[in-house]
Amino acid sequence: MNLRIFQLINLFFIILFFSACAKKPTAPPKAPPPVVKTIQVKESQFYDSEKYLATLKSRQSVNLNPEIISKVENIYFKSGDRVSKGQLLISLRADEEISSLNSQIALSSSKNEAISSKGAEVQEAKANLDFAKGRYERYKQLQQKDLISKNQLEEYENQLAKAQNTYNSLKFNLAGANDELKQAKSTINERRAKVNKLRIVAPFSGIVQDIPAKVGDSVSNSTTLISIANADNLEVYLNIPVDKAIGVKSGSLIELLSPDDEILATSQVSFTSSTVDPQTQTVLVKASLNNNEGLFRDNQQIKCRVKYKQKTGILIPATVISRFGDTTFIFLLAKDDKGQAIAKQKPVQLKKLVDNKSYEVAEGLAPGDIIISTGIQKLADNSPVKLAEEEVEK
To answer: How do residues 292-301 score in pLDDT, each as one tens digit?
Structure first.
């Protein structure tokens, strides 16, 4: 009897255990659809453009060399200093040249004094000559009337000839002295020019670059003393493939870009070469660049974007694009059979990136389409979505 009761109790617990195991598990709560924002597809105008590597070159850049052999005496500036046109940069040793110049100036001064003295003598001789001519003419008339003898007239004629010879001699000497003075002044100019060549001055305003020379160095016309560049006005040099150069015109826009494609400055094409480089099959294009703020440097290489012409098309932000393998797609806002908002996957064909933030669409979208612009990482084809409150209010 007791055994029978024990068996019944065991059977009850076994049935209770299997009943508990047979209960279905409770399903987890369903996640709410992601909240999304949208943008409407529309046509817009934008530039057809290409990126190139450009070189910036100073329109004023020079290495200064001496014209004569000498030694460096003084250097008045250091690299990085701003100098003005005509400022003395470097002086070369000029002791002998200056001494020779001063001697020639003294010689010229003495010759000038001698000319003044000779000029006075010539004026006096001219006055004596005029007096002798007048006296001779008077006595000549008297002799023709037999009022004086021929011997007396000959005496006045000899005095006239003597005055004429004196005048001619002094005039000749004055002309010679003037020639000597002219030669002395020419020599002064030559020696002054030589002294000036020993003064290295700035040919234009700019910034001192490298200074290879040192005080005491012996230098010749093959020695670079100092370099100067004016980077306030630069030229943009870029080589464009010949097939693309057809679209480049005077005034075409050029944007200078940072490594992150941010626009640093803009310019316009000022020159397009009429010839093609036979090696690279490219065309040289130039543009002027105002660099008053000093953002750029001479011979700097920089990325730039050339804008050819405006066109009309569909642009979409790069952030709305998804990729799977070779397929590029976006999510359109659509509705299911129950009228609920869903994300509809739509393949698209893209062209190229425009202004580093949008893609031009070749196929797959039309004006008026609604693109989901946020939360696309959480979306799948036909997955439900919920519009953000501000989207609903639109």
So the answer is: 888 998 889 9
